[in-house]
Every structure is written in structure tokens, then in C-alpha cells.
Amino acid sequence: xxxxxxxxxxxxxxxxxxxxxxxxxxxxxxxxxxxxxxxxxxxxxxxxxxxxxxxxxxxxxxxxxxxxxxxxxxxxxxxxxxxxxxxxxxxxxxxxxxxxxxxxxxxxxxxxxxxxxxxxxxxxxxxxxxxxxxxxxxxxxxxxxxxxxxxxxxxxxxxxxxxxxxxxxxxxxxxxxxxxxxxxxxxxxxxxxxxxxxxxxxxxxxxxxxxxxxxxxxxxxxxxxxxxxxxxxxxxxxxxxxxxxxxxxxxxxxxx
Amino acid sequence: xxxxxxxxxxxxxxxxxxxxxxxxxxxxxxxxxxxxxxxxxxxxxxxxxxxxxxxxxxxxxxxxxxxxxxxxxxxxxxxxxxxxxxxxxxxxxxxxxxxxxxxxxxxxxxxxxxxxxxxxxxxxxxxxxxxxxxxxxxxxxxxxxxxxxxxxxxxxxx
Lengths: 256, 158
Hints:
The structure holds 2 protein chains of 2 kinds.
Chain A: E1 6-17, E2 20-23, E3 28-29, E4 34-37, H1 42-48, E5 53-61, E6 69-70, E7 72-77, E8 80-84, E9 90-96, E10 98-106, E11 120-121, H2 122-125, E12 139-147, H3 156-176, E13 186-194, E14 199-206, E15 216-218, E16 230-231, E17 240-242, H4 244-248, E18 252-254
Parallel strand pairs in A: 1-9, 2-4, 10-12
Antiparallel strand pairs in A: 1-13, 3-4, 5-12, 6-11, 7-10, 8-9, 15-16, 15-18
Chain B: H1 11-15, H2 18-25, E1 29-37, H3 43-59, E2 64-69, H4 75-88, E3 92-97, E4 115-117, H5 137-157
Parallel strand pairs in B: 2-3, 3-4
Helix pairs in contact in B: 2-5, 3-4
Pfam family, one (chain A): Gly_reductase
Organism (chain A): Mordavella massiliensis
InterPro entries (chain A): D_pro_red_PrdD, Gly_reductase_pB_sua/b
């Protein structure tokens, strides 16, 4: 007889694979695997964050085309959005084949990192095919922020860079919310399960919480998002409990 | 010291975390949840948040905990204290941490025998290469297998 389990909730993640990423007049993404990137909103993003940000540039990096300069990598972000329910349940749409890399430096060339930095030739500074990095065949959208002098070392600076990047990604999320689910290229179903009588195990993730680019956000509105998120520093670095499905639905935004 | 580029876990890493995949797919264990705990600057705060984490685990009647840290250096103070707080409460603990040749624990105690070194670099250093010393599936399988052994042994010893 099968072990008795209790199913608490279900999360469905539908992935849409992108086969080509090109420049276009506007940011756009379609279920046929085509994505266009525009710089049209960058001036407005800089204006909104003008206390901290001097300039933003975007590059489309083709798979394997990594023999190029990169500023230090602050984060690598999947493009995902909630379609039904809140983080941890319901339906999420995500894309495969392209990931956003947020990089940062200030106007005098100081890299935006606390403890060691990863600027240099991208092909030497990034190991591909890890859980947290793009794969051999993935496109990268490089979102490169130049902060005002010294702002890369003050907490509001990197946070502003993450916020601007999140607003850029949101333009794709808004389109992905309307994707027809049946057009997905992968479908993953996850359940929060209780297994009565089995050994009870807890995972503890110790995350960054000391300030500036050493911060972790939780509870944003969108998966791996910034808007609505709370800083673990502001929550006193106290332990916060999340469900397996909340965690795998992108409840953490890594702000290092 | 804190997080280095080669160990840091990106938002994408958390989204596709191999540790959660490995533990949640094992039908021998009842995964209760994931505790996210920060790494404060101040030493008193480090002890506080780790102790509160262990109290959570105790109150949830956890048999075992796998703890991971995406930084090294002074964050080892938090890490080793949390291991000790869990261990003294009779909870089996294993974990994932970067040591290599440069980052042996700056403090030690009796509850660190189940910690897997996640170093992947040839010379065991912080290479500043993003992703290089990240946790991979094999590390997580080792940590879970070790935890299952420890939990069984603790049960037999009772």
C-alpha cells in the first residue's frame, strides 16, 4: 500500500522557450519563441532613479558570445510572472532560453560589490549550466547600471538598480500574463506534501543580510521580483518560514 | 568578509534550487518547509537569529535540518552557531558551506561533522567567477544521505 500523504497545495509552472532575442522598437515577447528588446524606457528609468543612477545600458548577448567585458554581476534573474494565485500556489509563467543579468559600476569605475567582484571578460567570469547561471544555449539580456559616484556602496544604490531592472522585466511579465497556457513548452507541477510518519526535515537557508549589496528580499508581488519585497535586513535578519512551493516559485530576490 | 561571487546564490539559483529539489523528491522524509535566516553584522545578533532558528526547528519537532550558506568568512560565525544550537537540542544537522583551502571555519564546535564543502575550484579559493563554487545536485544528495544516516543513528541511540 502506498504511503498516505496529505496534499496541501499545488503550483504549476509553465515555461515558454525563447528561440531568438532581437532588438525591436518595443519590448515584446510571444509564445512562438520570439522576444524583442528596446532601449526606449531607459531614459525614463534613469529619470525615476536620478538620485542614484547615472546611466543604464542594455545588451543582447547571444549564446556563446561571451568574449566581452562585463561589470560585476549583481544578480541573474529569471523572467517569471504570476498568472493565477499568489506566489507558492496557482499558475506561474516563466521563460527559458533567456535570462537577465544585472551588472553595476559607479561613474568613477568602482564595481558594485561588497566582497570580491566579478568584472572582467564574461567568458572567464561566469560558469554556465549551474542552477543559478544561464546554460550554453541561453541568451543573456545584460542590464548594466552605472550608479552615481559612491552610490554602489550605499544601500539605496544597488536597490535602485534592482528596482529599475525589475520595472524593465515587468514589461515582459505583463505580456506573459496573457499567454495561452496550452502553448507552453514545459509544464511542471509541484505539490506541498505532508508525509505523516516520515522523518521531519527542515531546510535552513542562511542568506545575505549585512547591507548595501549584501541583502536579500522576500515576498515581492512577482516571482523573483523587487516591487513589494521586504528586506531581510529590515526584518532584523530573523528566521522566516516559507513553504517549498513559495520558495520554488521565486519568493526570494537575491540583492547581493 | 561576506558573500563572494563564486558562492553567491542568484535569484535564478533560488528559483531552481537543487537542495529543495533533492529533499522534496525524497519520499523517505517529510519536508516541513524552508527557513530563510539573515546574516547580521553584529555578533550578538548573529547568535540571536541562529538561536531563534533552532527554536523554530525544535518547536516544529524537526528530526533533522540541512543548513546551507551562500557566503563564507564571518558568516561562518552564524553558520556554526546555528549548527550548535540545533545540535544541543538533539536535532540532527548536516549542511553545505564553502571551505576550499582558504575558508576553513573561523570558529568550530562539536556539531560540524556533517558539513559538505561545496568548493569546486581547482585551488580551493574564492575565484570571483560567478557560479563556480555554487551548490550542485550531488552536494545536496550527499548532505541528505548524511542527514538520513545521522537521524537513524540518533533514533537508535535514544
